[in-house]
Amino acid sequence: MQGCSRLSYEAPVITDEIKARMLAAMQARDPVAKNVLGLALGEIQTAEARANRALGEDEATAVVRKLVKSNEETLGHAKDDAARVAELRREIEVLSALLPKALSVDAVTEALAPVADALRAAKSDGHAMGVAMKHLKTSGAVVESAAVQEAVKRVRSSG
Asked: Among residues 3, 34, 130, 132, which one has the fewest Cβ atoms lying within 10 Å of its Cβ?
């Protein structure tokens, strides 16, 4: 029993936010939001059970991000079903609202200034992308790969 209270005590903030939004969705009679938030909570709890520990905030956020990506992939295959497309877009909207906002291309370009010389000296775009991602990860920046790719292109073409 003590292990259970430890897990809830160390629960990531995102888990608390999911529970609060789930309650609001139930009260608003929003079944799509309620179901997708329940799925997200279940995925986080499953990951915790597999790891035999509470997930950190970054790990729990990664679970939600994975669900968003999965829905985006499914959306690409569901073009003929308008109802399913609308539901998937709503699910993506609900889940994305839980995630920290990613940096814009301009902000990523600015964040890469300290490693600009290394990016320009990289043997290939792939190597430059690796340098950029390593730098951004160590700085704790929330980025999308498409934004990083565009920023790397900008940095490599300037100077």
From this structure: 3
Q: How do residues 98-151 score in pLDDT, each as one tens digit? A: 988 888 899 999 999 999 999 999 999 899 999 999 998 888 788 888 899 999
Residue 63 near residue 102, CB atoms below 8 Å = no
Tokens, residue 121: 């000296």
Distance between CA atoms of 36 and 70, rounded to whole angstroms?
12
Indicate the residue among 72, 96, 120 that finishes a domain. 96
Residue with tokens 């951004």: 136
Q: Is the pLDDT of residue 72 over 70?
A: yes
CB contact at 8 A, 15 and 41? yes
Give the C-alpha separation, 59 to 13, whole Å: 11
The answer to whether residues 92 and 33 belong to one domain is yes
Q: Which domain holds residue 10?
A: 2-96
Q: Are 82 and 136 members of one domain?
A: no
